[in-house]
Give the backbone structure.
Amino acid sequence: MKSMMRALVLCAAMATAVAAASPAALARGGLQGVRIFIDPGHGGPEPGAIGPSGLREADVNLRVATVLRNCLVEYGGATVKMSRTGDVDVSLGERTAAANYWGADRFISIHHNASYNRSYNATETYAYTYAGWTALDLRNKVHRKLVAGLGLPDGGVHTANFYVLRNTWMPAILTEASYISNPYQEARLKDMGYTWREGYYIYLGITDHFGVAP
Ligand SMILES: [Zn+2]
């Protein structure tokens, strides 16, 4: 709860900075009526990738997802559901079913990558192998904001046959904003401010996709 409050404060500070730069950004609530399903990857007994000093991908995914939810709701006026809001086990089938039966307009799965090459680090964003243009547009715009904002090497946009992308009925993307296996990156991902920014950049990509002010 405490971290949620702090995330809101950060979103407010960043939105103010954006508003100062662009009067158009003062318009709020451009995502009203839009249903966005956020899926923080892993959780519970399934921690996802583990950083060199033990940081769990599942925890980082949830922190980023929570900031994204707060920005979408507080500034975009969107309606948001999450596949999990705590460190719990939710199967892939349950995640996609929840989004499908809710009737989500977009599905955003948040992950962080890992490589045996610990020096490797990059931002990568995915859509389904047979994604339509709407999902590709969302993927491309979120990727652009993540690369510009985080400043990591651009690992490119990709298509993949991931379960959550294949089994969702709405345009869906999956972010791998960085590699938790890189010790320098793991240190950044421990910093709340860093993960807050990552969530905010994903939010900026979504508003860009819908053509509305952040
Ligand atoms: Zn993952």
Summary: The first strand starts at residue 35 and ends at 40. Residues 133 and 171 are 9 Å apart (CA to CA). The chain has one domain: 2-22+31-210. Residues 2-22+31-210 form a domain with the Aminopeptidase fold (CATH 3.40.630.40).
